[in-house]
Each structure stands twice: as structure tokens, then as C-alpha cells.
Write a structure and sequence with these properties.
- The protein has 451 residues and is of the alpha+beta class.
- The protein has two domains: 227 residues, MetI-like (MetI-like fold, Orthogonal Bundle); 121 residues, Immunoglobulin-like (Sandwich).
- The protein is built from 15 helices and eight strands.
- The strands form two sheets. Strands 1-2-8-5-6 form a five-stranded antiparallel sheet, with no helix packed on it.
- Helix 3 packs antiparallel against helix 11.
- The longest helix is centred in the first third of the chain and has 40 residues.
């Protein structure tokens, strides 16, 4: 049996513990003094407003009468607040998911771009623009007037390429001049005509300066029709400088070119043609009988004005689009930083095993980036819950209620005309309760990643 010898450390002197305790207390005091300014600011700028808002939410609009939970009850009975909750839900579901997806795709693609740094700079530049400036930019971009709004200018341009546009949207016929307007905006001759006749269809409402390439219509109106032929002229019944006779083709009056004309018999279109530069048209080879000459409504249809981006239906998606423009670069840079830390040997091993780029992206890159994607997504969720500037600036007054979110509704109720800071404080508390879980989750993720 072997004996084990243990060396016992000498007990510390009785008087050495007190100096150690004093040193620790001194260290804590010094640390507290350094932290104290930050704690004071935190309490004044964060803690006090939160506690004040919670307390204020239990009082009426004047702040003098205690109403308990009436503000919270009223909050969920108010249709405007319910619409704000619905719009906030749309923001939380759509914007962070789109931003995270776009950021991931762009971060992966940027790695394969030669000028990656310049590309990242361009995408990140909107982050340097304030929400106020971005709201003004997109308010102009979404303007319904194609001459002002760049998006509608593009939409109208594409539409006109494929669908065309009416020739004379402002043209109209004078009353009592032989033309009758139909319910669809078309014009037809009041009296019937037959092959061998010549008709003159006079219109007004077209500026002479808009008639590029038009020729005088007088000679065409004087030309007689052949046998079995219906002939006529569509002209601007207006003589520049005055004079002339209404209903008659004067020598200085211009024809209306590129006007669609139809010959109709018994309610059925039997022939169609387009006017020449002098406004003349002809229908040869018609059978004998009574016809009506018609100018279809397509000649006078108003021009396509584009999409009402800031109307009640599209205002929320439009504002979300502006938000995506600002924050896509943020998501791309954060995800790109996580992408740069991925083990390259794992990706190369997958490629050597025969995996294509899509399989590498879906089964290796995305799973390895899951922690980074989660942090980006949750951070954006917190941010969209507080969105205010873009909604308030981009949405016009008439549709402000259709685009409102909790932050804008809280401001409108408190200061934007409602003057009910009790209800506004209740909305602020609701917004805080919605943001806190996401903040706690994000903090825990950060701590976990540090460990």
C-alpha cells in the first residue's frame, strides 16, 4: 500500500482579505463612474419616455382623467388602427423576406463580378440618402403624370409601342353637321349614303400645329366617286386665321390623316380603310344599298395615362418598393460578409463531387449562411415595424389612411390632427410590445454567435 503525501497550502493571513475586498469595491466604483453617463442618457432618452408613454396610455386625451384600459379597447375598435395593423403585417411579411432574398442573391452574384467593389458601392449608396430625400424622390417617380413620373413614362412608352395610341383624342364633331356621336365615342353619318356618293366629315378640336404631314383637303373633297365606289374626306373644319364656312371644305382647311373609317351596312362593318395625308378615303367595289360611314371610337380614345401607383390599391407596395431600394445594399453587404467567411474547401469539395452551382447554393451555401440570414431578417423586421418617413412622405393625403402603419397612425392620432395622446401612447406601447420579442431574439443570436 502506497501512501500519498498532500502538500497543504498555507492559510492566507487574516489581514490580507480586507485589502482585496477594498480593491474590488474600488474597481466596481470606478467602472460605475465610467458607465454612469451612459446610464443617465439611456434612462433619460429611452427608459423615461417608455415609462411615461405606458403611464400616459391609461389617461384620456387631456391627460387629466384616468381611463384604465379604455385606450387599448378603443385602439382595436378603430378601423384606421386595424388598417394600420394590417399594413404593418404586410410590411413585416413582405419587406424583410424580399430584402433577405435579394441580398443573398446579389451577394452570391457579386462574387463573380469583376468590378465587385464598385457594384457594392452603387447598391449601398441609397443607404446614405435620408428617408426624407428618398421619399421625395419616389413621390416624384410615382407621379401619375407621364411627363413627371419616370415610372409611368416608361409604362406609357411600352404600352404605346405594343398597343398604339389614338390619333385624335381631342377631336369632336360640331352639332348639326351631319355626324352623330355613339355611346362608344364613335361618330357616324346621320344620313345613309350609297356607292357613287362623296361625303365630307368635318371635325374640330384639333390644333393645326398637331397635324404633321397633313395636306389640304379641298381637292380630295371635290373629286367625284367612281361607279360602285364610296368616297369621302375627313378634314379639320377650321380655317387658320378665321373665315371659311362651317360644314364646307375650304381651300386652307387640312385633312386628318391616319383616321380609321368604316363602311357599315345593317349594323355590320363591310369595309374599313385609313385616310390619306389629305384626309381622303375610298371604299371601292361596294354592293348597291344604303351605308353608314363611321369613325370608330378608337380614333378618339384618350391617351393611356399609365398606372396609379399611389392609388389606394398600390400605395403600400409602392412604398415597400422605395424601402427595398434603400435597404437592399445593407442586406447584400451583411450577407456578403458572412459569405466571405464560409469554408471554401467545403464548396470546392461539393463541386468536385459533381454538384452544380444551383445545388451548391441551395444545399451548402444557404444552410451555412442560415445564422447570418436570420440576423439580417430579424433586424429588418425590427426596422420595418418602425417605418414612418417613407409612408408619410410618399403616400398622398387622400390615400394616407390606406397606406398607414402603426408608426404613422401613432403620430396622426397624437399630433397629426387627432390630438389624443392617450390613444397615441397606447399605440406606442403596442408597437413596443411587437418590437421587443424580435429585439430579444436578435440579442440572443448575437450572444450565441460570440460564444
Amino acid at each position: 500500500m502506497t501512501a500519498t503525501l498532500t502538500k497543504v497550502a498555507p492559510a492566507p493571513a487574516a489581514g490580507s482579505a480586507a485589502p482585496q475586498r477594498r480593491a474590488r469595491r474600488r474597481g466596481r466604483t470606478v467602472a460605475l463612474l465610467f458607465v454612469l453617463p451612459a446610464l443617465v442618457l439611456l434612462g433619460a432618452l429611452v427608459l423615461y419616455p417608455v415609462l411615461f408613454s405606458v403611464g400616459r396610455s391609461f389617461f384620456d386625451a387631456s391627460g387629466t382623467r384616468f381611463v384604465g384600459g379604455d385606450n387599448y379597447t378603443e385602439m382595436f375598435r378603430d378601423p384606421a388602427t386595424l388598417k394600420a395593423v394590417r399594413n404593418t403585417t404586410v410590411w413585416v411579411v413582405v419587406a424583410p423576406a424580399l430584402l433577405t432574398g435579394l441580398g443573398l442573391i446579389l451577394a452570391v452574384l457579386v462574387e463573380k463580378v469583376r468590378w465587385a467593389t464598385a457594384f457594392k458601392l452603387l447598391l449601398f449608396m441609397p443607404m446614405a440618402v435620408s428617408f426624407l430625400a428618398a421619399g421625395i424622390i419616389f413621390r416624384l417617380a410615382y407621379d401619375e403624370d407621364p411627363d413627371k413620373g419616370v415610372l409611368n413614362a416608361a409604362v406609357v412608352g411600352v404600352h404605346d409601342v405594343f398597343r398604339g395610341t389614338s390619333s385624335y383624342p381631342t377631336a369632336r364633331a360640331r352639332d348639326g353637321q351631319g355626324l352623330t356621336e355613339g355611346a362608344d365615342g364613335s361618330y357616324r353619318t346621320t344620313a345613309t349614303v350609297s356607292p357613287g356618293d362623296t361625303v365630307a366629315l368635318g371635325l374640330v378640336g384639333v390644333a393645326p400645329k398637331d397635324l404633321d404631314g397633313a395636306e389640304p383637303a379641298h381637292a380630295a373633297a371635290a373629286r367625284a366617286a367612281d361607279r360602285g365606289e364610296l368616297r369621302g374626306v375627313v378634314y379639320l373644319d377650321f380655317t387658320p386665321g378665321g373665315g371659311g364656312k362651317q360644314g364646307a371644305v375650304d381651300r386652307r382647311e387640312s385633312g386628318l390623316p391616319a383616321m380609321t373609317v368604316e363602311a357599315v351596312r345593317e349594323g355590320r362593318t363591310v369595309a374599313s380603310t385609313t385616310t390619306a395625308a389629305d384626309g381622303s378615303f375610298r371604299f371601292p367595289g361596294l354592293e348597291a344599298g344604303a351605308y353608314t360611314v363611321t369613325l370608330p371610337g378608337s380614333n378618339f380614345a384618350p391617351p393611356y395615362e399609365g398606372i396609379s401607383w399611389l392609388g389606394p390599391t398600390l400605395v403600400t407596395p409602392a412604398v415597400i418598393g422605395a424601402y427595398l431600394w434603400i435597404w437592399t445594399g445593407f442586406a447584400m453587404v451583411l450577407i456578403g460578409a458572412g459569405l466571405s467567411t464560409l469554408p471554401r474547401d467545403t464548396l470546392e469539395a461539393a463541386r468536385m463531387d459533381g454538384a452544380n452551382e444551383w445545388q451548391v447554393f441551395r444545399r451548402i451555401t444557404v444552410p451555412l449562411l442560415a445564422p447570418v440570414l436570420t440576423v439580417v431578417f430579424v433586424t429588418l423586421v425590427i426596422n420595418v415595424m418602425k417605418v414612418f418617413d417613407l409612408v408619410y412622405i410618399i403616400a398622398p393625403g387622400p390615400v394616407q389612411e390606406d397606406a398607414t402603419v402603426l408608426a404613422t397612425q401613432m403620430w396622426l392620432v397624437s399630433f397629426g390632427g387627432g390630438n389624443d395622446q392617450g390613444l397615441g401612447s397606447a399605440l406606442g406601447v403596442l408597437l413596443l410590445l411587437l418590437v421587443v420579442p424580435a429585439m430579444v431574439f436578435n440579442v440572443r443570436r448575437f450572444k450565441g454567435s460570440q460564444r
